[in-house]
């Protein structure tokens, strides 16, 4: 099994995916253990002083003005976890919770949180044991980070609440910890707060969405190429010199992919045969421009994610040496400073950007599908690609399904990050709603896969109905693989949902792109 070693300088997106989706094991580096120990010494020294220090010897949020005496501090840290574990609604997916916990561990190991090494090791042990805290859909405002979701994770470390075991059964966390030889932690000064105060949930979902969308944008180039071919469009608009004079990187990559898929096609270039067309419709001709803009949006979101992966998000943070510049507290080799780095705006914005791009990509794919089904615009194809139009309805309702998905995606594209509801008695008076942006993006990504699957299914049938014309070798490979996956070809009406489900799985697990790349070589 793959092992991810967590140090002090952050982790990679590949590390997150390995832990979240492939159950990679986690180890703490010696460097991380040393940094944890050094930061803890600073916190312990500050805790011994009579002056109040936020997060160490005070209450939290709007209650930060109360100085907490030493005998109540363990109770304070325990209470913040219990009280903040206030989520409600359906359970969040296992991969999201694992990403959330792993990214919190990444920040803890930075040496800027003041958490003891044994707490960090317990976080790693829980993940390695396959124990997944029960985290609920609602509860995070994205500032101060993903408080409620992270609190449910911290509750499991304490041996409280519920968690899912490696067998998928939800049980009391104390039982699961005991079965795996993991001792519950007793949280000391600052530790409860340090486990809750980060953008880890929204960041984890961003990283997974980026991985999924990267594959889907390549899939979209393939389905667009098949639709262009099925509509007897021209591939001249994909010429590299046309895209060089508008040098957006994503646009050039999408055009190159489409051109590679269409190489050797006997269907392209027939747009003048029966009904002269000066140009193809925008949904065909502008496919690289729309998909390319989405690719460039992905690139920007990836940059934000990389910066967050290199960050240590907590409040307050432990800094080495020097005099305090604000209301922080200093002790010997370091100091503790309050800050606003927990605000989720940078992540929330790009999550919303991606939802907008995904909705537009789905929209243009649906327009191509509709064109394939309309006898007045499909250039010789039967109505709805039906076997006996009138007796058979063909793919009429498949397009309805696609339209319903696109309509939902347009609603999901409304930004969450423009909203803000003040909380904590107006102390936290502006929040990012980044968790909400991430949750709706996950739905949008799933829907985009389905939309592209329906376009693929329709375009494949349309190409097969073009008798006497030979599709591109890559196209033939894709259609053959699709049929082998269980999505049947043209013929009389049949129960259609299983075919669409097979096409959805074919796109989702990467078989579409793999079948094409077996002919074209690697696509961009």
From TrEMBL:
Keywords carried by this UniProt record: Cytoplasm, Histidine metabolism, Lyase
Cytoplasm is among the record's keywords: yes
EC number: 4.3.1.3
Name of protein: Histidine ammonia-lyase
2,3-didehydroalanine (Ser) modification, residue list: 144
Pathway the protein contributes to: Amino-acid degradation; L-histidine degradation into L-glutamate; N-formimidoyl-L-glutamate from L-histidine: step 1/3
InterPro entries reported in the protein's UniProt record: Aromatic_Lyase (IPR001106), Fumarase/histidase_N (IPR024083), HutH (IPR005921), L-Aspartase-like (IPR008948), Phe/His_NH3-lyase_AS (IPR022313)
Major localisation: cytoplasm
Reaction equations catalysed: L-histidine = trans-urocanate + NH4(+)
Subcellular location: Cytoplasm
Post-translational modification: Contains an active site 4-methylidene-imidazol-5-one (MIO), which is formed autocatalytically by cyclization and dehydration of residues Cys-Ser-Gly.
Annotated family: Belongs to the PAL/histidase family.
A single MF term (Gene Ontology): histidine ammonia-lyase activity
UniProt cross-link 5-imidazolinone (Ala-Gly), position: 143-145
Domain of life: Bacteria
Pfam family, one: Lyase_aromatic
Protein's UniProt keywords contain Lyase: yes
Organism name: Streptomyces chiangmaiensis
Enzyme class (EC, first level): lyase
């Amino acid at each position: 099994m793959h092992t991810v070693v967590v140090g002090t300088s952050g982790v990679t997106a590949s590390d997150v995916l390995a832990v979240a989706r492939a159950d990679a094991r986690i180890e703490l580096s010696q460097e991380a253990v040393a940094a944890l120990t050094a930061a803890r010494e600073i916190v312990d020294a500050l805790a011994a002083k009579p002056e109040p220090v936020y997060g160490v010897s005070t209450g939290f949020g709007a209650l930060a003005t109360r100085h907490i005496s030493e005998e109540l501090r363990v109770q304070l840290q325990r209470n913040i976890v219990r009280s903040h574990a206030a989520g409600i609604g359906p359970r969040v997916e296992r991969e999201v919770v694992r990403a959330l916990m792993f990214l919190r561990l990444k920040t803890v190991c930075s040496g800027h949180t003041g958490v003891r090494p044994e707490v960090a090791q317990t976080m790693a042990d829980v993940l390695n044991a396959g124990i997944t805290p029960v985290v609920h859909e609602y509860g995070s405002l994205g500032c101060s980070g993903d408080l409620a979701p992270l609190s449910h994770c911290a509750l499991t470390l304490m041996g409280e609440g519920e968690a899912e075991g490696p067998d998928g059964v939800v049980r009391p966390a104390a039982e699961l910890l005991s079965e795996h030889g993991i001792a519950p932690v007793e949280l000391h000064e600052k530790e409860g707060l340090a486990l809750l105060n980060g953008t880890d949930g929204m960041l984890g979902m961003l990283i997974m969405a980026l991985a999924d969308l990267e594959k889907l944008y390549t899939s979209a180039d393939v389905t667009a190429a098949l639709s262009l071919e099925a509509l007897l469009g021209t591939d001249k608009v994909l010429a590299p010199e046309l895209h060089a004079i508008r040098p957006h990187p994503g646009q050039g990559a999408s055009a190159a992919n489409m051109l590679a898929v269409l190489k050797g096609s006997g269907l392209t270039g027939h747009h003048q045969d029966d009904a002269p067309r000066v140009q193809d419709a925008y949904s065909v001709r502008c496919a690289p421009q729309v998909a390319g803009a989405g690719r460039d949006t992905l690139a920007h979101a990836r940059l934000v994610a990389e910066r967050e992966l290199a960050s240590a998000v907590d409040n307050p943070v432990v800094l080495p040496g020097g005099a305090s510049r604000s209301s922080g507290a200093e002790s010997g080799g370091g100091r503790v400073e309050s800050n606003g780095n927990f605000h989720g705006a940078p992540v929330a914005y790009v999550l919303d950007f991606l939802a907008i791009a995904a909705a537009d990509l789905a929209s243009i794919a649906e327009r191509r599908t509709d064109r394939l089904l309309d006898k007045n615009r499909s250039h010789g194809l039967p109505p709805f690609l039906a076997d006996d139009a009138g007796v058979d309805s063909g793919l009429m309702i498949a397009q309805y399904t696609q339209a319903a998905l696109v309509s939902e995606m347009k609603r999901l594209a409304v930004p969450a990050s423009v909203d803000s509801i003040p909380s904590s008695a107006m102390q936290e008076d502006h929040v990012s709603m980044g968790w909400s942006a991430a949750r709706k993006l996950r739905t949008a990504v799933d829907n985009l896969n389905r939309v592209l699957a329906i376009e693929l299914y329709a375009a494949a049938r349309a190409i097969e109905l073009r008798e006497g014309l030979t599709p591109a070798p890559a196209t033939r490979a894709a259609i053959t693989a699709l049929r082998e996956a269980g999505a049947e070809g043209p013929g009389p009406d049949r129960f259609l949902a299983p075919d669409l489900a097979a096409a959805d799985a074919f796109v989702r697990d990467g078989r579409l792109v793999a079948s094409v790349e077996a002919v074209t070589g690697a696509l961009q």
